[in-house]
Amino acid sequence: MNRRKNGTPLVHTRPARIAMAALVLAATGALTATFVSGGGKGTADAATSLDQFVSIENVPPNVQNPRPAAGASTGRFTVDCGTNGNGKFSPDNPVAQPGIRNGAEHVHDFVGNLAITANSSDADLDASGTTCRNGDKSSYFWPVVRIDKTVRSGRQVQQALAQTQPMVVCPSVGKRLRAVPTEARGTVDRLLAELDRQQAAANQRMTASRGRIDAAFNREVIDSLRARRAAMIKQISTTITTAGGNQPGLVSLVDCDVSYDDMHARMPGSAHRASVKAAQAANPRIQCPAVRDRLPGVPDRALAEVNRNLDDLDRQISEANERLITSRGQDGPAFVDNAILGPLRAKRVAVLDRIATAIGRQAPRPQGLEALAGCTLDQAPSTTAAPSSAPTTAAALPDPQGPNLELPGNTGGIVRPAQVLIEYRGNPVSTVVPMPKFLRALTGDAKPTSRGPANARATWTCSGFTDRLSDKYPICPAGSQVQRVHDFPGCWDGRNVDSDNHRNHVAFADKATGACPQGFRAIPQLRITVAYDIPRSVQVKGQYALDSFPEENHNPFSDHNDFVNVNSAQTMQRIATCINKGKNCS
């Protein structure tokens, strides 16, 4: 805990937000998190005393920088991808929850890749445009910061948790498969059904956690499910490949998560009150019917052609979503209908016909695929949450709505970054090897309360104070910017671009020496520094906060950042060479 010079805890009043127990978990190892309110007064009023903010001047220097040894790589390569001037905001979580719409339950700033969504394939990412000046198509994204001066009762948050049934959410494997050979279709369908049964069983276990958050129990459920899903998904991949299909590893779809989005839906928030008119300002995206899970078994001679066409369908959606970003503000809905949705439907009709024809040459032609051609602009407001007397699962979390792209519990005006510095750095004890293309990486943990704090990282500081990082929101001196410093793992296992928990294929170097763990090799270590001009009066009053999952309730220790490397092999080699030669490049 940060303290004043006299040793007393540094506590600031922050209206209407409730302290979470994640930091208590980190300090004490407690397993069950509960909401803490009232500052010991036995109430949950709007003037709750909170320990979520700290004067950066009271945080002691704590950043360790190992001294470079012989053979170190001391260079630095910077990339200018802007500050999200295009306004690509999204509640998707493409790395941690691929294929799950609104997986983040909060809004991210995106820079770099223009096309990325939760459903993007590697081919889609590679074909995308970018905001980066050097052509880097990588995707860099982090939760937004908002200023919210409204008052929320802590009691509302407690009541929302008390009514919430945690749910297990898993990526759909069927919707991400490539063409399944005819002889493998029956086995694959059986295995997909087993995956559904596994998830249902895990959800049944989660009924024991209704109304509370138990990090240890959540880990037990998810770890057990992950092990069984990994075996089943590997069997699906092997079955398809053995039958002559082309099915690369599906490791990105193994991990599941515990969701408390019902809690979001039960909390009052402006998103549920947003009008249809206001919703038109929300960040739209193209929604198209899934095709991959609607196909029959594909004859051997048609597999390659069907896969090419399935990839075309994915690419068309990514291109349409990119067009939405780059053409924003042009002639309203009529422009979208005439210039994006209409042409997209025509192209999908042609591709779906090619798929049906390819299959029909060798087997019965699939019927009804043309019904999957039409797509929509998904930006309408959701229905309101179910009342407290309704069944345990409330209405689905709505898309971000209104001019501020609000969600229940994540409200207020988004603070646009004043600066975003993206830099690739070296290793203190060795040279670096290029990152592989399409490497996925995470830093921090969006859910230290419901998953435990093992992967959480302190990120908060102020300009001029980069020798110290805090797990609390900083209050900066006049003239100093609020900053978030996100350091990514700088070591790679040399084989995989992802892993079943999205973490095990990369690792952080040793804090004291900078050496990578045994079996790992140093790669250009990514650091992203996001800076904000936030009025000091807002800081002192505790009126800025991170978008978060509902159970974190804007916990500053839940800060995180995600990355997909879409640099070309040539560019990544240039980055590694610059760093190894000790140069500063861009």
From TrEMBL:
Residues 303-330 form a coiled coil. Residues 380-396 have a biased composition (Low complexity). Keywords: Coiled coil, Signal. Residues 1-32 form the signal peptide. Pfam families: DUF1996. Residues 425-565 form the DUF1996 domain. Residues 380-404 are annotated as: Disordered. PANTHER family: DOMAIN PROTEIN, PUTATIVE (AFU_ORTHOLOGUE AFUA_6G11970)-RELATED, PTHR43662. This is DUF1996 domain-containing protein. It comes from Micromonospora trifolii.
